[in-house]
């Protein structure tokens, strides 16, 4: 595949990834607000997304195998097609049939779709950008940052569409976006996204690359640390303790995710250095672990809760975005071209596991603290977050402290 063709295909797969990300963020807000309006509390609403996270793990478990056997182009189209199926379950089912079980099944498919398209896009950037100093880092940061910014835009669009046209019409609009992306990708893409030379087996699921395995475990704790207080505890705290309307809480979280995405996109400029190494990941993790401690201390000593939490969220978002951007570069930097889909699948399987555990603990710990107060519940979650981040830093100490020498792709 020529360089020009590779860049063209990468632009197309990125467009498709953006469309799916926008729809993914919007449907999350649509489901959350719709069921909240029906009288479900925030913890019950959060349970609707457990299958989303669980099947993200399953997808990343098998996604690398699928990509290595059939190619990244196939997994991209599988992802977009699965997202259309997930959305159709919500559009064509009468409102009376939108039960918790049905919506959880739809969210399971959305989780599969999201991770198939993410794996395809993240793997494609490695094949197109190569290993040249600086370029891979910049491209990964831009892709990851733009994805999260668009997810935040999706949060807002989902909330807006729900208020303007209702649940099922809003989902129909999202189907049109994803369908258009699939149609354009099918028509415009030429060739594939890297040749399939090695037919991987499930027995090869665990990487033989020590750096990839260590980074994957660090990723598990990093994203568990975010979701243990961000997914359930934070929106419940904003709406009950601070007295915000739910749309205000959702809108603030949308802005937070958009800002988080912009920081990720500009991570190379913010960190002002050459390509990051394990040393970069280590000090960033330890620095991030201090922020939930400071937020929890402020709440414990009864400082102004809105100022403490919102100010802490801004600091946490900046530091977390830099951590995530460095991880997203390192996973591609550590892997060889012929193993990129497998290793990215392993890495994002750990990512999804962390989100699932974080989501479950967020509900359990916050509920445990409610026996005292909502503030105590959030402090419990923040304490767990700090612990997870400290473990992330300890694991990161074992990551390579310099760039690795990697095998070049055939005919390079």
Structural commentary:
By secondary structure, the protein is mostly helical. The chain has a single domain (3-396), classed as Growth Hormone, Chain: A. The protein is 79% helix and 0% strand. The chain is built from 15 helices and no strands. The chain starts with a helix and ends in a 16-residue tail after the last helix.
> What's the shape?
globular
Radius of gyration: 21 Å
Please identify, by name, the CATH architecture. Answer: Up-down Bundle
- How many domains? The number is 1
Number of strands: 0
* CATH superfamily annotation: MFS general substrate transporter like domains
The ordered H/E elements are HHHHHHHHHHHHHHH
Class inferred from helices and paired strands:
mainly alpha
% residues in beta strands: under 5%
Largest β sheet strand count, sense and barrel closure? none
Q: Helical segment tally?
A: 15
CATH class: Mainly Alpha
What is the name of the CATH topology? Growth Hormone, Chain: A
Level of helix content?
Answer: over 70%
> End-to-end span in angstroms?
11 Å
Average the pLDDT over all residues and give the rounded result: 80
As residue ranges, the low-confidence spans are 407-412
By oligomeric state, this entry counts as single chain
């Amino acid at each position: 595949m020529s360089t020009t063709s590779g860049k063209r295909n990468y632009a197309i797969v990125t467009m498709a990834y953006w469309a799916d990300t926008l729809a993914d963020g919007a449907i999350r807000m649509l489901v959350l607000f719709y069921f909240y309006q029906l009288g479900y509390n925030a913890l019950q609403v959060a349970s609707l997304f457990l299958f989303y996270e669980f099947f993200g793990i399953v997808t990343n478990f098998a996604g690398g195998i699928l990509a290595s056997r059939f190619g990244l182009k196939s997994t991209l189209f599988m992802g977009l097609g699965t997202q259309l199926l997930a959305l159709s379950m919500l559009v064509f089912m009468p409102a009376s049939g939108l039960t918790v079980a049905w919506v959880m099944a739809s969210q399971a498919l959305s989780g599969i779709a999201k991770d198939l398209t993410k794996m395809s896009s993240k793997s494609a950037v490695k094949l197109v950008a190569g290993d040249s100093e600086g370029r891979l880092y910049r491209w990964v940061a831009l892709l990851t940052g733009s994805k999260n910014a668009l997810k935040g835009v999706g949060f807002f669009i989902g909330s807006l569409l729900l208020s303007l046209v209702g649940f099922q019409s809003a989902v129909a609009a999202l189907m049109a976006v994803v369908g258009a992306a699939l149609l354009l990708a099918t028509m415009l893409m030429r060739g594939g996204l890297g040749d399939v030379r090695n037919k991987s087996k499930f027995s090869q699921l665990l990487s033989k690359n020590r750096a990839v395995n260590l980074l994957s475990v660090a990723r598990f704790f990093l994203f568990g640390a975010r979701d243990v207080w961000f997914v359930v505890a934070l929106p419940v705290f904003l709406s009950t303790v601070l007295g915000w309307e739910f749309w205000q809480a959702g809108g603030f979280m949308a802005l937070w995710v958009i800002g988080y995405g912009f920081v990720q996109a500009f991570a190379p400029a913010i960190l002002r250095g050459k390509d990051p190494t394990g040393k970069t990941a280590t000090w960033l993790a330890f620095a991030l672990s201090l922020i939930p401690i400071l937020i929890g201390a402020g709440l414990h000593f009864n400082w102004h809760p809105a100022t403490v939490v919102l100010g802490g969220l801004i600091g946490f978002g900046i530091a977390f975005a830099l951590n995530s951007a460095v991880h997203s570069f390192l996973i591609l930097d550590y892997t060889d071209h012929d193993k990129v889909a497998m290793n990215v699948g392993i890495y994002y399987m750990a990512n999804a596991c962390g989100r699932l555990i974080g989501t479950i603990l967020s509900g359990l710990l916050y509920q445990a603290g409610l026996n005292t107060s909502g503030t105590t519940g959030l402090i419990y979650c923040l304490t767990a977050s700090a612990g997870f981040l400290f473990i992330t830093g300890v694991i990161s100490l074992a990551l390579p402290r310099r760039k690795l020498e990697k095998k070049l792709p055939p005919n390079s």
